[in-house]
């Protein structure tokens, strides 16, 4: 008859083997990049402005990626100004890219409080923090992607070129 300690050790070894095998079936999350392809204002009210963003999702891995949806937060000069969610099922082919449209809702009160600061700047930095939600059955969890860029307001003629910040 086995001692209780031997039985416990065998049980722990079996549990460890199951856990290791389970982790081995989880593949690495695919490498995905995201860029802003276009931006089109939609509607505006006193408190909120909606903007349609076309995002380009690029799958840099050898397997197609199926997404059930996405969530996005928009920052301008490190100030959170808006958010978007998308529930459209999207398939990004292996080593391919697809455009995805989302409606961003901007907080006009936040933008209004920052308007004077932003108007003094020649450039605005933006950041888009995104969480991509894979379809059911994926061997990995949510994918986080951050995209950064800068808008040259002077070059766009939005502010006078004399703005120096």
Which CATH-level-2 architecture? Sandwich
What is the CATH homologous superfamily assignment?
Immunoglobulins
For the report, how would you describe the main beta sheet? Answer: 8 strands, antiparallel
Number of domains: 1
Task: Please explain how this structure is put together.
The chain is α+β, with helices and mostly antiparallel strands and 165 residues long. The chain has one domain: Immunoglobulins (Immunoglobulin-like, Sandwich). The protein is built from 3 helices and 8 strands. It has helices at residues 4-25, 108-119, 153-156; strands spanning 32-44, 48-59, 65-76, 79-86, 90-92, 97-107, 123-134, 143-152. Strands 1, 2, 3, 4, 5, 6, 7 and 8 form an 8-stranded antiparallel sheet that branches. A hairpin with a 3-residue loop joins strand 1 and strand 2 (48-59). The longest helix has 22 residues, at 4-25. Mean pLDDT is 84; it is low at 11-25.
């Amino acid at each position: 008859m086995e001692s209780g300690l031997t039985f416990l050790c065998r049980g722990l070894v079996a549990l460890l083997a199951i856990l290791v095998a389970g982790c081995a079936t989880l593949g690495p999350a695919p490498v995905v990049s995201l860029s802003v392809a276009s931006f089109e204002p939609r509607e505006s009210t006193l408190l909120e402005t909606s903007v349609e963003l076309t995002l380009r999702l690029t799958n840099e891995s050898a397997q197609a990626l199926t997404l059930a949806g996405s969530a996005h937060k928009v920052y301008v000069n490190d100030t959170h100004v808006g958010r978007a969610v998308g529930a459209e099922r999207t398939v990004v082919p292996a080593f391919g890219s697809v455009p995805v449209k989302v409606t961003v809702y901007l907080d006009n009160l936040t933008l209004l409080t920052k308007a004077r600061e932003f108007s003094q700047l020649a450039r605005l930095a933006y950041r888009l923090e995104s969480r991509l939600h894979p379809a059911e059955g994926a061997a990995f969890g949510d994918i986080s992607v951050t995209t950064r860029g800068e808008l040259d307001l002077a070059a766009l003629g939005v502010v006078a070129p004399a703005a120096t910040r």
